[in-house]
Specification:
single chain, 117 residues, mainly alpha, elongated
Length: 117
């Protein structure tokens, strides 16, 4: 039985992803501070933040709403990483993409469980 969002593996993994993406974007050009750096970090932070906020809501339907936002944020991060690679700010995004897909699958599974309730 899940007691809080902190007990969810997807929450823990998404927190780790935030740290990794902050490290990655620290090497981006300074002129991207208010562009891609900010967007990637904001979207990455949105994933665990929405998991936490949703889990604090009163109903499964409300939790599901926030899980769906988190799913969208994973797609946003993936797209922003692809743009970063295209612009030459990073060369290999495969591990990030793999981890994002893993997080997305976990969120979809959680959403399915919430829908069944």
């Amino acid at each position: 039985m899940v007691r809080t969002h902190k007990d969810l593996d997807v929450y823990k993994l998404s927190l780790q992803m935030v740290g990794l993406l902050y490290q990655l974007t620290a090497a981006f050009p300074e002129e991207e501070k208010y562009g891609l750096i900010s967007q990637i970090r904001r979207a990455a932070v949105s994933v665990p933040a929405n998991i936490a906020e949703g889990s604090a809501r009163n109903t499964s339907k409300q939790f599901l709403y926030f899980i769906n936002i988190a799913i969208g944020s994973t797609a946003e991060v993936e797209t922003l990483l692809e743009i970063s690679k295209l612009l030459g700010f990073t060369t290999d995004i495969s591990q990030y993409t793999y981890d994002l897909m893993r997080i997305k699958r976990m969120l979809i599974s959680l959403a399915s469980k919430l829908t069944d309730n």
